[in-house]
Amino acid sequence: MCQSLLIEQVPIVEKILRTVLVYLVIIVLFRITGKRGMAAMNTLDFVVLFLLSNVVQNAIIGPDYSLVGGVLGAVVLVALNSGVNRVINLAVERHPRVARLLDGSSTTVIEDGSVDASSTRRLGIRRSELDHAVRLQHADDIADIADGQLDPSGRLLLTLKPAERSATKADVEARRAQLDRLESLLATR
Length: 189
Prior knowledge:
By secondary structure, the chain is of the alpha+beta class. It has 2 domains: 2-103, no CATH class; 107-164, CRO Repressor, CATH 3.30.240. 63% of the residues lie in helices and 10% in strands. It has helices at residues 2-6, 12-33, 43-61, 67-94, 96-103, 117-123, 127-136, 169-188, and strands spanning 107-111, 114-115, 145-150, 156-160. Strands 2-1-3-4 form a 4-stranded antiparallel sheet. The radius of gyration is 26 Å and the shape is elongated.
């Protein structure tokens, strides 16, 4: 019994090739299907992720049920991901077009307080998700948003209209200086 745990039933090169190919296919699938990041995943997205791991298991390890086969598949997958991330980071620094190809670009979903319905429909973003993002920005309504972008990582980045922005420390200091000048003018009269 212990011997069958350690004896590989599929050649190592085949297992590595299977892992690399499945990894590349999954990257392409996720790139094609959209920009949702892990933080923006809903229950259905998690179900797909869990089922996907089960679906591709046999494609990665084949008919190999050995411990060594499973560990080898895991090591290749983690090493491949680490290497791809490093190569992407280097390529992006030297060639910005590579970043756009691999990550995509930001998509406008709110412009001057109005939702771009075609973009949100295409991206699969619900109105409730936009409303939640607006509340996180301490705004009351989508009408308070000057610009809303879904970035390539799946985050909604919203810019409040100037009238809706909170005062900064610099704003408070400028008003305090104005008040001090007014007080000194009034005191001299």
